[in-house]
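User: I'm writing a tutorial on reading structure tokens. Could you give me a worked example: one chain, its sequence, then its tokens, then a sentence or two explaining what the tokens reveal?
Assistant: Sure. Here is the example chain.
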Amino acid sequence: MTELELKQLCDQLNNTPRKCLGWRTPAEVFREKMMEEMGGCPYRRR
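And here are its predicted structure tokens:
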């Protein structure tokens, strides 16, 4: 597996909505948690 293929797979997995995350993507949840740690919130929770 090439580095590009591995990155594409990671991107696909991190941008797939998950029922256990309230249909948010892992990337969205990660971004929200990072923003909370930095003192801001990128979006309002649904």
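What the tokens reveal: Helices lie at 3-14, 26-38. The two ends are 38 Å apart (CA to CA).
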